[in-house]
Amino acid sequence: MIYNLALTLAQQPEVVERVLRVTRHRGFRVTEMDMHLGDNGTTRLGLVVESDRALELLSHQLSKLIDVTACEVLAPQQTATRYPQHASA
Predict the structure, then answer these.
(1) Which H, E and C letters describe 41-52, residue by residue?
(2) Residue 75's pLDDT is what?
(3) How many domains in the chain?
(4) Does any domain span residue 88?
(5) Rounded to whole angstroms, how far apart are CA atoms 71 and 64?
(6) Cα–Cα dist 58/30, whole Å
(7) Does residue 46 lie within any of the structural domains?
(8) pLDDT digit string (tens) for 4-59?
(9) Which domain covers residue 41, as residue numbers?
């Protein structure tokens, strides 16, 4: 299954490393990551992860991390619709 998460983080150097470590330890593989620094001391991190495990195993643990202020589960993504194949001319 492919899942999409949106996290709000404090701007700390080690917070992304912690998020990725928890993701790996919970048995999820990161397939896509998008990060944007905010003006108010926060960072928005978008993760697309893949696993056969229940997403709650990951989202609950991420929300407990010290510098994670929000963990939102978004609608599941299908990679085929996200990256359509272009026809060659």
Answers:
(1) CEEEEEEEEECC
(2) 82
(3) 1
(4) no
(5) 9
(6) 12
(7) yes
(8) 999 999 999 899 999 999 999 999 999 999 999 998 999 999 999 999 999 999 99
(9) 2-77
- Please name every residue paired with 72 in a beta bridge, in sequence order, or none if there are none: 6
pLDDT of residue 64: 96
38 contacts 2 by C-beta, under 8 angstroms: no
In single-letter form, the type of residue at position 34 comes to: D
User: Which CATH number belongs to the domain containing residue 27 in this structure?
Assistant: 3.30.70.260
Q: Has residue 62 been placed in a domain? A: yes
* Residue 83 in domain: no
How is residue 28 written in tokens? 């999820």
Lookup result for tokens 């990951």: 58
* Band (68; pLDDT cuts 50, 70, 90): very high
Beta strand segments in 1-89, E: 2-10, 29-37, 42-50, 68-74
Whole-structure pTM over 0.85, yes or no?
no
The residues, ordered by sequence, that sit 6+ positions from 66 with a Cβ below 8 Å of its Cβ are none
Distance CA 29, CA 86 (A): 26
